Amino acid sequence: MSQETQKEGRFLPEKKKMEALGRLSCKIAHDYNNILGAIEGYATLAMNGVTKSDPLRQDLQEIRTSVAKAAAIGKQLIVFGGRQMLHKTPCDVNGIIANMLKRAELAPGGDFKIEARLEPGIPGIIADAAQLEQALANLLVNAREAMFPAGAEKQGGGTAIITSSAQRFEGDDVNSPVPREAGRLFIKVSVRDSGGGISAEAYERLFEPFFSTKEKGRGSGFGLSTVYGVARLHNGWVEVKSEPGRGSEFSLFLPVS
Question: Residue 117: pLDDT above 90?
Fold first, then answer.
């Protein structure tokens, strides 16, 4: 692991590599969406020329459904590349976390639990609440899958701990894309699990689009790349701490408004 990406046991994605991947992702997504737009347009025109009872109509609808799924991938590439349009408003991070914990995919079940340890009265931020909520939900889903991997025995239980706090940074400790606009005060949101930790081989590729340590067919490989992209879109950053056999902690740092 390069020294550029590791500080005092904290792993940070390597900036130059990730910026290059971001530019490539946005270029691919742009061309990709143009092609999808043509397919969608011609499929729609063709549907307008057939009756509702025509068997061809169902085939055309399947094409449009597949286009929509493919477009969702293009959107995730744009988020990763930091080119997604945001709807930023004044936000309370603790409120976003409380709302996120109501999501169906995060409902406690079996041996899985979520414990929230939120610092009261932390400053607000300017953010796209929906994007931030999705990024944090991705971290919790990732934590659950780290503790209960496919095919493993689910014994002993597992608790994902999500925390929030206000922290001040100085100088080079600010890892925002545009440090001069970020200030010094940040909200830190962390998700910690008690899973098996992250292998040295996986560390360098954690936040790359399409990269996944899961079995084929389980997961799209966009969970952590979306977290990385959302952090950058808010002029923040993401860090990871992990030890083999002792779990992992993913932390999101967001500048206070």
Answer: yes
pLDDT score at 152: 52
Model pTM score: 0.74
* 155-212 residue pLDDT tens: 446 899 999 999 999 988 999 989 999 999 999 999 999 888 887 777 777 888 777 7
Q: Are 132 and 238 contained in the same domain?
A: yes
Q: Write a three-state SS string for the chain.
A: CCHHHEECCEECCCHHHHHHHHHHHHHHHHHHHHHHHHHHHHHHHHHHCCCCCCHHHHHHHHHHHHHHHHHHHHHHHHHHHCCCCCCCEEECHHHHHHHHCCCHHHCCECCEEEEEEECCCCCCEEECHHHHHHHHHHHHHHHHHHHCCCCCCCCCCEEEEEEEEEEECCHHHCCCCCHHHHCCEEEEEEEECCCCCCCHHHHCCCCCCCCCCCCCCCCCCCHHHHHHHHHHHCCCEEEEEECCCCCEEEEEEEECC
Count how many domains the chain has: 2
Whether residue 43 is found in the same domain as residue 104: no
